[in-house]
Specification:
This is DUF4235 domain-containing protein. The protein is mainly alpha-helical and about 110 residues long. The protein has one domain. Helix content is about 60%, strand content about 0%. Helix 1 runs antiparallel to helix 2. The N terminus is likely disordered.
Length: about 110
């Protein structure tokens, strides 16, 4: 087996894994609920259950896919950034998966997100 460089290794953090997963899943659920309600208000119909279904109008399927993909991805990203800020404030450093080589969180880094 070959040797791995120390720079390529990152310590795993079960706390960060759990925190980021909960934040992302929670944000996606809240965003989906809000998106569904917004869709109903805007169109007067329920959002498509399966946009790939040929019975769903193509225009509606495309709009739903674009809106839901964008809103849910943004919500997950923002929630993960907030979770990273909390983690950095709690531990004094960024989560392992977000650290650059030798990078430490500073008070200004923690306030950015």
């Amino acid at each position: 087996m070959g040797k791995r460089s120390k720079a390529g290794k990152q310590k795993k953090s079960p706390a960060w894994n759990a925190l980021s997963a909960v934040a992302a899943v929670g944000a996606a659920a809240v965003a989906k609920k809000g998106l569904d309600a917004s869709w109903r208000v805007a169109t007067g119909k329920n959002p498509p259950a399966n946009p790939a279904d040929p019975d769903v109008e193509l225009r509606e399927a495309i709009l739903w896919a674009a809106a839901s993909g964008t809103i849910i991805a943004l919500a997950r990203m923002l929630a993960t950034r907030k979770a990273a800020t909390y983690y950095a404030q709690s531990t004094g450093q960024l989560p392992p998966t977000l650290r650059k080589d030798g990078q430490k969180a500073t008070s200004s880094d923690a306030q950015v997100a």
